[in-house]
Amino acid sequence: MSTSRKRIPEHELVVLGGGGVGKSAITIQYVQSRFEMGWDPTIEDTYRKPAVVDRQEVMLAIIDTAGQEEYRLMRPGYLRSAQGFLLVYDITSRVSFNDVSRFHDEICQAKDLATYPAIILLGNKADLADRRQVKTSEGEELARRMKCGFMECSAKFRENIDEAFHAVVRAVRKYNHKNILDRTADLLAGEDGPERTHYGEEEPKGCCTIS
Predict the structure, then answer these.
(1) How far apart are CA 138 and CA 34, in angstroms?
(2) Distance between CA 160 and CA 127 in Å, rounded?
(3) 207, part of any domain
(4) What does the alpha-carbon distance between residue 93 and residue 127 come to, in Å, rounded to a whole number?
């Protein structure tokens, strides 16, 4: 008698940010447990890694992206399909921090939402705190405005690397669960029921944005 194998859910995650912020170093540290020295500009690499988050198995497809402006036209496709995002800046670079809002806008535009909750804002290179240009409080405030999670990490010393990816997985699960509840509520309410946003808030018919 054969037994069916349990299907493991898969989440597509994108590591996004400006050039040189450490996106590849973060990804390789998480997937391969090693620190990649130097910086070789990435066009796009995809890694697969099984993980256990809160005692639940998951398969992660992680896309390490190009941060340079010349690759911007490549991004909308995988931004639409991805479920979660690590939005990375370098705490020693004010420019990379300023770039974060542009990348966040690209995510929201691809998702056709005013904001998207399955994002972790990640300040990399915490081991270089003596060269810091971006305060922790600034990262916290930006994450508050974006309505997403925040932490600082060090790819070099694997500080908060697992925690960041697992936090994204939790955010994806929460977002997906909320959408299921909203769709169920809409079905129970019928066609005459109030329309809902992705966050379960009622909106008048015809409204197309989330405030």
Answers:
(1) 29
(2) 12
(3) no
(4) 14
Provide the domain limits for residue 124. 10-186
pTM of structure:
0.81
| Residue 100, CB-side half-sphere exposure with 13 Å CA sphere | 30
> Is 192 inside any structural domain?
no
DSSP SS3 for 159 = strand
CA angle, residues 115, 121, 127, in degrees to nearest 5: 170
Output the domain CATH number for residue 150: 3.40.50.300
Cβ contacts of 1 within 8 Å, gap of 6 or more = none
| Helices 161-189 + 23-32 axis angle, to 10 | 90
Distances (CA, A) of 25 to 16, 49, 114, 156, 180: 12, 16, 30, 8, 35
Query: What type of residue sits at position 51?
Result: A
- Residue 163 within any structural domain of the chain: yes
Q: Provide the CB-side half-sphere exposure for 123 (13 A, CA).
A: 27
pLDDT tens-place string over residues 10-54:
999 999 999 899 999 999 999 999 998 765 655 568 999 999 999
Report d(CA 61, CA 76) in Å as an integer: 17
